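To fix ideas at the outset, we first show an illustrative case, written as a sequence plus integers encoding its fold:
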Amino acid sequence: MKFYLAIPLMIALMSSGCRVPDTPHLKGVVVDEANRQPVAGATLHYDGYPKRQVHTAKDGTFDFPPILIWMPMSPLDRSNVYVLFVEAPGYEQMHRSYGSWEDGTNEIFLLKHD
């Protein structure tokens, strides 16, 4: 009889989940490759999340928090890789790959003119 009492508890534990980062937290600056001046208003977004964007400030800095997703159980190994796109008017689009496990602080993106 005690076994039957454990079943609802097991189901509850197995169906519980948590929010985990699917992308890393990125902070950095976007600058013009030629003159090293900041690029204000540049847009950054991941290939898997085109509507989740951040824009650079007047000094070219940005702070892109991690995108969190709900998972039924906390995974032991996460190996998602996303491509981050950096775009600004008058510049070539650039991209860089990031894994969800990476730390992306103090990133510097150099944009080339079209």
Remarks:
- The chain is about 10% helix and 45% strand.
- The radius of gyration is 20 Å.
- Residues 2-15 form the longest helix (14 residues).
